[in-house]
């Protein structure tokens, strides 16, 4: 369950919706993206286009996710109207998110759809695996980085891979959080001054501050007098039309330099353009030829190795290396001329034997496991039958003893049997006691 | 409770889309109050050619409204939008209907289903009367509709 980050009592920052919203696009929320809502880390308001910062301790509520495509209506929870999360099914065959049904149940202990009485957690069951698989496969957008991935992978993605998710600052003493992609930059939690507005803030917030919030973030390009973001000046200069740039054929010798917007005109009449294009084409060709040469060289080496090998063993069937047996080894006359290839041959033989041994040992372990399983499977019923037989035998023994006792008492009727009854009495008692204990044992069994 | 606000947004999105016959959206912007017009579709002489205005209000209970609490639903009295005559509707527009109370509410209800329930409640009615004690109730009631303890005794309409 995520921490309830809903704004307490105050209305959420949602601006009015309009009928013109096309059905598949997320809602338009005209409210400006303010730093306050982002630092409050409220990943649960409904602006699906926002990028959120989710830290290691924050759970992510899957019910708030944005799905890539429209989710099948049959997979929606009737309570939260989002794709089911950890679904449970009631005895009346209605399926809800686990959290949803618990929330609803706390205020009214009935099934919300048909109002049949419901006892939690005993009454609910997990729906079939096929439904769970369908839900797991739903494609969602990661709330941090916007990547598309199956829903079942999201938690893992956030906790391990997402570059925008928050992790602990790499500095051991510092206890704050940084985005995973900034992890390598060391601790950025020190005070720093914005070069544009002189405001003091933490270095870690500087980038977004300079890009989005700084009051003086906008500057005017000294060349084209267009409004630009100051911290992006270097990028702008690469495309600014008013900057002096040299002709693109500089490296082939053109000395011409002009404003970027005028370069197009120059390009048409540049004398180096023919040469430059030719040179570029040739370069491309050379690089493809180099690649080809490289592959051919590799091939050649392989062929050479093969030829050497065949020369050493003229009768050797090359395609048959693995089936060579050790016994044939002496036949293939080892010559001193090609020690390298002979070694190779021996090595290959050794390898094939090794792999065979490996296979055999694997097979052996498998067989062993199978055997043990079979043994177990067979002995368990036998053991059970044995126990049954034992108890049956006990019961029969008890019956026999009881009957014998009975018969013995019948043969010696009358209380006045004197000494014989004294000697028989304890014996009879002993029998009785024995059978009683037996009965106890049997009932315990 | 974030998904709750998402749910409410979906609700809003849906009523801006298509609604069943006899139900029309008047105004729904933000999450304060929404206005809808409803008509009784069949030829019930009590409600013929009349349109009634419903107000859905989400006061303090945002955003758990719809999830564990019903929205506050009342009829509005305007020059061209009267309060319908019904033994369970007070003349100030307050409706006595179990599914709009804390006990009868179910989170699977939505704006559309509430409107349709009210439509059918009007359709099935034949009595041209106000609830018992209407005058006194209207005069003295200062509570908000959802805090009133209604006694749901009548299952016929």
TrEMBL record, chain A:
ZnF (TRAF-type) residues: 208-254
Pfam (any one): zf-TRAF
Residue ranges occupied by any RING-type domain in the UniProt entry: 77-115
Region (Disordered): 1-42, 410-445
Keyword DNA-binding among UniProt keywords: no
InterPro entries assigned: Znf_C3HC4_RING-type (IPR018957), Znf_RING (IPR001841), Znf_RING/FYVE/PHD (IPR013083), Znf_RING_CS (IPR017907), Znf_TRAF (IPR001293)
Ranges of biased composition (kind: Basic and acidic residues): 429-445
Regions of compositional bias (Pro residues) in chain numbering: 1-14
Keywords assigned: Coiled coil, Metal-binding, Zinc, Zinc-finger
Coiled coil stretches, renumbered: 279-306
Sequence ranges of Gly residues compositional bias: 415-428
Span of domain TRAF-type: 208-254
Record PANTHER family: TNF RECEPTOR ASSOCIATED FACTOR (PTHR10131), TNF RECEPTOR-ASSOCIATED FACTOR 4 (PTHR10131:SF94)
Protein name as it appears in the record: RING-type domain-containing protein
Species annotation: Coleophoma crateriformis
Automatic annotation (TrEMBL), chain B:
CDD domains associated with the record: UBCc_UBE2W
PROSITE patterns xrefs: UBC_2
Pfam families xrefs: UQ_con
This protein's record includes keyword Cell wall biogenesis/degradation: no
Keywords linked to the UniProt accession: Ubl conjugation pathway
Domain UBC core: 3-157
InterPro entries in UniProt: Ub_conjugating_enzyme (IPR050113), UBC (IPR000608), UBQ-conjugating_enzyme/RWD (IPR016135)
Protein name, entry field: Putative ubiquitin-conjugating enzyme E2 W
